[in-house]
Design a protein that fits this description.
transmembrane; single chain; 2 domains; transmembrane helix; Solute carrier family 22 member 5; membrane; alpha+beta
Amino acid sequence: MQDYDEVTAFLGEWGPFQRLIFFLLSASIIPNGFNGMSVVFLAGTPEHRCRVPDTANLSSVWRNHSLPLQLQDGREVPHSCRRYRLATIVNFSALGLEPGRDVDLEQLEQEGCLDGWEFNQDIYLSTIVTEVGM
């Protein structure tokens, strides 16, 4: 096996040009690091839930019960990606039925978030997720 210094001798000595190139290339790493770390702040996913459109003719009681509950960290919170079928709960609201008393919420059909999401803005005001809409 040949000696490293012998193999690279044709490159010349470590002179001012090599130092300049070394430090310029080293300095370019700093902005790349900032770019890589920015995703920590820009791509956070805030707490969210399905949006129930304001145009839906729902009573306040049905609006509060329009999302199924899920167990998260030992407590029940509104589901983040499901809601009860909007047409069904609008019909129940128009008939004057009350959730939990007249209608068993566990038996209702669910649907995805067809009208988008509402995001909690306690931590993040705007992220990639809130702007693109997941």
